[in-house]
TrEMBL record:
Family: Belongs to the Tom70 family.
Cross-referenced PANTHER family: MITOCHONDRIAL IMPORT RECEPTOR SUBUNIT TOM70 (PTHR46208)
Protein name, entry field: Uncharacterized protein
Keywords attached to this entry: Membrane, Mitochondrion, Mitochondrion outer membrane, Repeat, TPR repeat, Transmembrane, Transmembrane helix
Keyword Phosphoprotein recorded: no
Main location group: mitochondrion
PROSITE patterns (UniProt xref): TPR
GO terms under biological process: protein import into mitochondrial matrix; protein insertion into mitochondrial inner membrane
Keyword set includes Mitochondrion: yes
GO CC entries: mitochondrial outer membrane
TPR repeats: 9-42
Length: 77
């Protein structure tokens, strides 16, 4: 079953979790976003939103890390 075929929010969340653990942040965000669309349970939605927020936080950290590394390279030369 591919992500495009999944309509169960729990399965989508679990798939997102796998992508997150693998470092595939964009794929995880996609899964969590789809899970939000299909979920009706408020507690499940809270977890899914939290997971998606962790993805966004990780993306920001990656950007800041890249920015810091670029500055490091620029100031080295």
């Amino acid at each position: 079953m591919t992500m495009g075929e999944i309509a169960d929010p729990v399965q989508l969340k679990d798939e997102g979790n796998k992508h997150f653990q693998a470092g595939e942040i964009d794929k995880a965000i996609e899964c969590y976003t789809k899970a939000i669309k299909f979920s009706k349970d408020k507690k499940a939605l809270a977890v899914i939103y939290r997971n998606r927020s962790a993805c966004f936080l990780k993306k920001v950290r990656i950007l800041y890390t890249l920015q810091a590394y670029i500055k490091h390279i620029l100031f080295q030369h």
